[in-house]
Amino acid sequence: MLVSISPRLPRPEWIRAPARTGENYREVQALMGRLGLHTVCESAACPNAGECWNHRTATFMILGNVCTRRCGFCAVGKGAPLPVDYDEPRRVAEAAATLGLRYVVVTSVNRDDRKDGGAELFALTIRALRERLPGCNVEVLIPDFQGSHAAMDLVMEAAPDVLNHNIETVPRLYRQVRLGARYDRSLDILDYARKIRPGIPSKSGIMLGLGETDGEVLQVMRDLRSSGVGILTIGQYLRPSPKHLPVLRYVPPEEFAELARIGRGMGFAHVESGPLVRSSYHAAESHAGAAASL
Q1: Which of 196, 236, 269, 294 has the fewest CB atoms below 10 angstroms from its CB?
Q2: Number of folded domains in the chain?
């Protein structure tokens, strides 16, 4: 995998996201504003927001929209965290019901200011969704909770349908990409989830284009399988702004397809791999695909 050192690579033609427009898009935007909710779609400048919101789906981001970490890839605002809003789970459930969702993805900012890292609010949100929408599948995309097993216990006791925690990149690049995180800690969180609730599938994702090598990516995939991860997402890193890490390489679609093939060979139940893939992209389909392969 050759890496360009140019910080201003022209974006290739295969990276074209749908426009953020349309009646459904505006309806979702208005609903989130009315309920005072945040989404990772907007806060993290996700390229798929136009597509997903026009299909009346969104990834809810709880615990505010200010992160306590300063990761080099992420567009979410950084600074002093907001107070925890204990009415937020109810409003997330209300929004999901209004949109008619049968599969809901909930994520959060990092909350290193809290002993449990925000795990309590994840559990409350899972339960609020189940109460308002019986039969609804809930996927949670959690931070690392600073490695707290007690925090993981809170989340797993609420029994999400999928436990997602992104590894994001290869260990060599953690200091630049995931400031404040540790590769071994993220693997431990995933492994612990498997040990305490083996029936709940786990999921993780990695970005490409930050300077990683083929061998490093394959080793991360092997590490994730060893930690019990069954669903894998692989996508292209896109620079949110000039203040963020530059894109060192745009990976062509055929290489993403090859990584999906390799991942299936390693034993992943489902691999979603492509330039615009993000951890919540086609989440319901990924869950169904994984379930069908078991």
Answers
A1: 294
A2: 1
